[in-house]
TrEMBL record, chain A:
<feature type="region of interest" description="Disordered">
    <location>
        <begin position="117"/>
        <end position="154"/>
    </location>
</feature>
<feature type="compositionally biased region" description="Basic and acidic residues">
    <location>
        <begin position="30"/>
        <end position="42"/>
    </location>
</feature>
<keyword id="KW-0812">Transmembrane</keyword>
<feature type="transmembrane region" description="Helical">
    <location>
        <begin position="154"/>
        <end position="174"/>
    </location>
</feature>
<keyword id="KW-1133">Transmembrane helix</keyword>
<keyword id="KW-0472">Membrane</keyword>
<feature type="compositionally biased region" description="Basic and acidic residues">
    <location>
        <begin position="55"/>
        <end position="65"/>
    </location>
</feature>
<feature type="region of interest" description="Disordered">
    <location>
        <begin position="1"/>
        <end position="65"/>
    </location>
</feature>
<protein>
    <submittedName>
        <fullName>Uncharacterized protein</fullName>
    </submittedName>
</protein>
Automatic annotation (TrEMBL), chain B:
<dbReference type="InterPro" id="IPR011032">
    <property type="entry name" value="GroES-like_sf"/>
</dbReference>
<protein>
    <submittedName>
        <fullName>Glutathione-dependent formaldehyde dehydrogenase</fullName>
    </submittedName>
</protein>
<dbReference type="InterPro" id="IPR013149">
    <property type="entry name" value="ADH-like_C"/>
</dbReference>
<dbReference type="Pfam" id="PF00107">
    <property type="entry name" value="ADH_zinc_N"/>
</dbReference>
<feature type="domain" description="Alcohol dehydrogenase-like C-terminal">
    <location>
        <begin position="188"/>
        <end position="259"/>
    </location>
</feature>
<feature type="domain" description="Alcohol dehydrogenase-like N-terminal">
    <location>
        <begin position="25"/>
        <end position="143"/>
    </location>
</feature>
<keyword id="KW-0560">Oxidoreductase</keyword>
<comment type="similarity">
    <text>Belongs to the zinc-containing alcohol dehydrogenase family.</text>
</comment>
<keyword id="KW-0479">Metal-binding</keyword>
Amino acid sequence: MPYTADKPPLPETPQQLRDRIPGWGADLDPADRPAVPREVRDPATGAHWDLPEQQEERRPRERSIEHARLTPVFGTAAPTRGLSGVIRRFSYRRFGEGRTVRWLLLIAADRVDAVEGRLTSSRGSRAEAAVTGTEPHRGPSSTPRRPRPRRSPLGRALTVGSWILAGVLAGRAVRRMAGRRAGR
Amino acid sequence: MRAMTYRGPYDIRVEEKDIPRIEHPNDAIVRVTTAAICGSDLHLYHGLMPDTRVGSTFGHEFVGVVHEVGPSVRDLAVGDRVMVPFNIYCGTCFFCARGLYSNCHNVNPNATAAGGIYGYSHTTGGYDGGQAEYVRVPFADVGPAIVPDWMDEEDAVLCTDALATGYFGAQLADIAEGDVVVVFGAGPVGLFAARSAWLMGAGRVIVVDHVEDRLAKARSFAHAETYDFTRHKDIVVELKRATGMLGADRVIDAVGAEADGNLLQHVTGTRLKLQGGSPIALNWAIDTARKGGTLSVMGVYGPVPTAVRFGDAMNKGLTLRANQTPVKRQWPRLFEHMRNGYLKPNDVVTHRIPLEHIAEGYHMFSAKLDGCIKPLVVPGTA
């Protein structure tokens, strides 16, 4: 096949495509495409404020150090708690978003959170059973746990390996910072 | 209320939670009537997205009925049937004032690189999502819209992300008449991107995946040629052969962080979480594009660095375009296409799951069982 200036021929003509595919070419003109141009000035958004009112911060809310302030609105799902919360708050307080260690610490905190969640949910159900005299249920859900997707031994080993690696990296980061402080 | 609740990787349940309350004057509380599970929810489910907290509720695709409004809400009233874009945005910050709603600077304290998204970890702001009976909707005068009378409930829920994102992805690819377009991924976003590429005048549309049910849907719904990458030793070489050895003019990555097809990338990206995902599709996309071509990235990747073949992208002079979709900007034109019969979103829906059974739904969707392409979630129907 010679390499020439010509484009390889298409299997169908525009008319054939228009006949076969409903709407073919309806947005041929980029002016009809709502994402063109990428930036538009002052679109009608429905907002009736210049700066939104500030949502009340009922408890200290962790935030990126790349923000100048707590954003006017923020999510309040699952506030930080326990050891996972300590790791998360440390990560947000200490590292910018461009630092990989920030994200690895957050992933490590997620794993700690999952373990903490299991511990507290089983303890809660036993306590509840002791008070109410009912049969303990399996965790806080009334929905029985569904079988997990089957995971191979290699897969499990790799997953555990990732936790260990994240722990090592987090430990190194903490040691490095402790060293910096000691050197001051 | 009943709500899907994350307990750890591969472990979700339905639990009792408090009905969310108004926390800001422009909040609304919406009673969810239909939600969806998105392919990107699986990244959370698999523990890939940093700061995904136990006890949080996923779900960024939902429609419902307004249950309560805050004191400054003007445009919505209790009882309105609303569709809610997956973006949470203020409407007036530097980015919103330029139409970049998905990049709002006023809604995500946890990270400046990402905007606010319902039910998508604290990395996108720490909001609970719509796979529940009720959900808090911030900036109710900005994001949600009343569902048009003519619009089907399932079509409406697909407009809140999957359809809008596929359509946006095709636009980012800068398709011109006669262009050869390759779409990696035949999930809902890939299918919608492929279908939308024709609207923009594509001359050929090729979809690549490895799940036969999805490839069949790509042929029937998106009128596309299809390639199963597991049937070819080297899918990039195969696609080069199919394009006169030049490569495709425009390539769309509609796969993202959990791509199959390369063991090393899969292990380091998906298993070990040492990358922000497994960039197999992205690297194939870079190598499939012709020199001077355009690459549109709809696939979601995490914030951890990812091993992308950037040298190839540079040497080939590619234009890389990517973003989360500013959903509401797409709606007026999308609605026209729907009314004209050019797009029928709920053609990709394969399963409707009661909220109480959502754990099975995640498992089925994650393992691509039972021909699952797009599962919807319906509260209160167990």
